[in-house]
Amino acid sequence: MRLLFIVLVAVIFTGCATKDPYPELSSAVGNSKHSTRYRIAPGDSLNIFVWRNPDVSTSVPVRPDGYLSAPLLEDVLAAGKTPTELARDIEKVLSTYIRDPLVTVIVDGFVGNYNDQIRVVGEATDPKALLYRDDMTLLDVMIGVGGLTEFADGDKAVVVRREDGGLKQYRVKIRSLLKEGDISANVDMQPGDVVIIPESWF
Predict the structure, then answer these.
(1) What DSSP assignment string belongs to 30-85?
(2) Based on the domain organization, do 119 and 30 belong to the same domain?
(3) Domain count, the chain
(4) Of all residues in the chain, what percent carry a pLDDT higher than 70?
């Protein structure tokens, strides 16, 4: 009986000493700065303004296939372009019908490309995909999803990031950041990151 007790104690302490399989995401790992120019995506809403031609000016959505259709415009590719690039393309098409058209494209309903989003799943108050912004940090992301639920194990959260042609996982300490104000846990995010927040076991 005593031998069995010793074995159980050894198993428990061995389990407690198990190393976390994920390295912690620190500022040294996640501090690369990304500067993104917004590129139009399927589902975005666009205002196309043609100077001195109100009959051609219009508001249209970008179709799921990435194209748009508007007066005098048929199947113009919009997805993947900046608003300025799309405006120049539209000017080329309209120049067949209008002399020296001047076009401005304004995006007023943002969806964003998948590669430019940060997805938060698990025990966030409002799990969802957020559009990446320049210099976005973990704190910005957590504010965007309303923080943690009461059942979240925030310090066991993981960021899945595409690096070197594969996926890598890093530990982040969301609870320490939000509840204890540990600013060292406020790491930089990157476009395409996935934040996974597990449920606490107790």
Answers:
(1) H-----------TT-EEEEEETT-TTT-EEEEPPTTSEEEETTEEEEE-TTS-HHH
(2) yes
(3) 2
(4) 85
